[in-house]
Amino acid sequence: MNMRDETGLPFMKMHGLGNDFVVLDERARAPCLTPALIRAIADRHRGVGFDQLAVIGAGEGADAHLNFWNADGSASAACGNATRCIARYLMDESGRDALRLTTARGVLQAVDAGGGLTSINMGAPQLDWRDIPLARAMDTLELPIEGGPTATGMGNPHCSFFVADAEAVALEEIGPRIEHHPLFPERTNVQVASLIAPDHLRMRVWERGVGVTLASGSSSCAVAVAAARRGLTGRRVQITLDGGTLAVDWREDGVWMTGETCHVASGVLTPAFLRANG
After folding, report:
1. Percentage of the chain surpassing pLDDT 70?
2. Which residues in 115-220 belong to E strands, given as ranges?
3. Structural element, H or E, at residue 179
4. What residues make up the domain containing 43?
5. How many whole angstroms separate alpha carbon 160 and alpha carbon 150?
6. Taking the model in full, what pTM does it have?
7. Counted domains in the chain
8. In angstroms, rounded to a whole number, what is the distance separating the alpha carbons of residues 218 and 211?
9. Whether the predicted pLDDT of 137 surpasses 70
10. How many other C-beta atoms are found inside a 10 Å radius of the C-beta of residue 4?
11. Calpha distance 104→119 (Å, rounded)
């Protein structure tokens, strides 16, 4: 039994617009996660519950390194809302108003946007079919899927449908079907979005390995990029999700996302829970 088993595992619960996370700070501790433990923590009845689990590690040439997992135990290269939440936590901890964070997506810049808001540069979107990735060569602007969705990579794959009324779509039905569509060898996040104004979209999200979520940062970035590519909007938009509104700005240096964050609570997973689910 290691010291983690004897003393329990500290964690934080955070959310960005209801997109919720369990966050572990591993900067001074040895990692202990397994897919089984991740799934156990994700259980909203027998564990803590989350859309994604994020781990803060020591950064090489950056302020911290972040790793992400979905509720089903699968890894994710990007999680925009979790990155914003952790950036706010690290800025509060350090007293700084700008950070450099590394993820599997690369180096991400974070800045204090004022008024309690945090901005993250999620990097340049991936628009080529190989990078998203898709199963074969095709135009990513309109896929050969009913509804003609757009594919975008933001470090993870996205499939965005533009519809007359996002509220009217049975997302629980089409979400899992599109997530596992053969065009997406690594599965995909699924969005349905409708145009409210030339700078405002309404979006709902089915997250890969999770299901319907109240918000998704990387999905918001993907939809903003897709809408601009299709000529529906400009490159700076407000996106209203089930949990609130994010501002997305596709600039020359990457896709910037700005919104609120919340550190809900801190706690400790008990030794008994760790032993039962290790």
Report:
1. 98
2. 117-121, 150-153, 157-162, 189-197, 200-207, 211-213
3. helix 171-179
4. 3-122+261-277
5. 5
6. 0.92
7. 2
8. 15
9. yes
10. 17
11. 19
